[in-house]
């Protein structure tokens, strides 16, 4: 019988996140390459609507992992419930989106089954029939090939942006949805979730902007931000930033790009005085064209840039602005 690849989707208050779709794309591609069955599981309290959404996306089966104790996320609850599903399905591979929640419970789940986990992968490939995962190391300065030792199930999570959510395949007819009868007791859950933080209302939705002019610490002082703002306006784009700019309060948090900010995929991303730390790059590497200006020729941002200019932003921003004003 063909092996099973199990994708664990993540929902919060009935909303799926984009990374779940990206992980599903990884699962679809892996299942096609390995001739495997594809199963999707959604933990929560009542996930029937989300299960139907997934059933249309060409899996072989969808699993509702439901229990009253899974209404609010806890690592104990999720790990215990999914352990039961993994034992029942016996998948070869269990895939997750590499979210904060997954970082919290997935290693515990893998360990409870005596298995390891490869976290935060950016790609996979098959080498002589062996599945190899690629993950970044040393702040993205190098990449390592990692593979599993021992028998399956194997556990792996994918970094945001590693796969494109818009490449998700649809099936001709919906896949069957099954509910697993999860056995959970209140005493198994050792943490008590409090109210979720209410996210601040966003003034601007950078995910929809086709052009982003993004500034980093190279901008040096808040008095210099209008330079970039003017350029963004002339290009018909929005202003974005790396984390230190928002931490300093020079721009609001909703303009921060990266692992703890927004993930964007504009047509053009202009990175001005941004070094290209991995936590920033995961939020913008999906841009169609990346142009970077940095005075350090060795800045890691040049590794993801389509066009790189080694130079001083205080010379180049005014020069670009002047040219655009002539148009
Ligand atoms: C848990 C965690 C989460 C994080 N989340 C995020 C996140 O969501 N987003 C994010 O951005 N960061 C995040 N970070 C921080 C991240 O690690 C980096 O510290 C940050 O991205 C660096 O910002 P920067 O590139 O603006 O600054 P720096 O690393 O200081 O780089 C400034 C760059 O500007 C260049 N420069 C200086 N002057 C000029 C000039 N005149 N002309 C041209 N170039 C110039 C320099 O050569 C340098 O490359 C996170 C870190 C952690 C630990």
Offer a concise description of the structure.
By secondary structure, this protein is an alpha/beta fold.
Which band does the percent of strand residues land in? Answer: 25-35%
Distance between the termini: 64 Å
| Count of individual helical segments | 9
Give the helix/strand class: alpha/beta
Mean pLDDT, to the nearest integer, reads 93
Q: Which ligands, by name, code or SMILES, are bound? A: flavin-adenine dinucleotide
Radius of gyration of CA atoms, rounded to a whole number: 22 Å
Strand-and-helix sequence, N→C?
Answer: EEEHEHEHEHEEEEEEHEHEHEHEH
Descriptive terms for the model:
29% helix; five-stranded parallel sheet; 327 residues; alpha/beta; 9 helices; 16 strands; nine-stranded mixed sheet
Verbal overview:
- Helix 2 links the parallel strand 4 and strand 5 (61-66).
- The longest helix is centred in the first third of the chain and has 17 residues, at 18-34.
- Helix 3 (75-89) crosses helix 4 and helix 5 (225-235) runs parallel beside helix 9.
- Helices cover 29% and strands 26% of the residues.
- The radius of gyration is 22 Å and the shape is elongated.
- The strands form three sheets. Strands 9-8-7-10-6-1-4-5-11 form a nine-stranded mixed β-sheet, with helices on both faces.
- The protein has 327 residues and is an alpha/beta fold.
- The chain has helices spanning 18-34, 48-55, 75-89, 100-112, 225-235, 243-247, 278-284, 301-304, 313-326, and strands at residues 4-8, 11-12, 15-16, 37-44, 61-66, 93-97, 117-127, 130-137, 142-146, 154-158, 177-181, 211-215, 238-241, 268-272, 289-294, 307-310.
- The structure holds flavin-adenine dinucleotide.
- The site of flavin-adenine dinucleotide (FAD) has 27 residues, from helix 6, helix 7, strand 15 and helix 9.
């Amino acid at each position: 019988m063909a092996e099973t690849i199990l994708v664990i989707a993540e929902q919060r208050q009935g909303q799926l996140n984009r990374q779940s779709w990206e992980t599903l794309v990884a699962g679809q591609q892996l299942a096609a390459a390995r001739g495997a069955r594809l199963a999707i599981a959604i933990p929560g309290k009542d996930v029937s609507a989300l299960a139907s959404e997934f059933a249309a996306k060409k899996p072989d089966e969808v699993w509702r992992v439901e229990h009253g104790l899974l209404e609010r996320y806890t690592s104990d609850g999720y790990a215990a419930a999914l352990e039961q599903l993994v034992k029942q399905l016996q998948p070869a591979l269990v895939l997750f989106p590499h979210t904060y929640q997954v970082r919290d419970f997935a290693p515990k789940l893998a360990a409870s089954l005596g298995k390891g986990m490869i976290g935060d992968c950016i790609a996979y490939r098959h080498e002589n029939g062996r599945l190899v995962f690629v993950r970044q190391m040393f702040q993205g300065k190098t990449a390592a090939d990692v593979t599993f030792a021992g028998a399956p199930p194997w556990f792996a999570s994918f970094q945001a942006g590693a796969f494109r959510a818009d490449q998700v395949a649809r099936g001709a007819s919906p896949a069957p949805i099954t509910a697993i009868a999860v056995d959970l007791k209140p005493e198994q859950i050792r943490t008590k979730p409090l109210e979720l933080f209410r996210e601040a209302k966003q003034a601007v939705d950078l995910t929809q902007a086709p052009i982003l002019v993004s500034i980093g610490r190279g901008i040096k002082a808040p008095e210099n931000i209008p330079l970039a703002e003017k350029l963004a306006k002339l290009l018909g784009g929005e202003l974005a930033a790396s984390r230190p700019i928002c931490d300093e309060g020079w721009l609001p948090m909703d303009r921060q790009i990266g692992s703890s900010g927004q993930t964007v995929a504009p047509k053009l991303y202009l990175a001005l005085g941004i070094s290209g730390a991995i936590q920033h790059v995961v939020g913008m590497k999906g841009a169609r064209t990346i142009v970077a200006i940095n005075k350090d020729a060795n800045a890691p941002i040049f590794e993801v840039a389509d066009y790189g200019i080694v130079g001083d932003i205080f010379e180049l921003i005014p020069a670009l602005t002047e040219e655009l004003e002539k148009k």
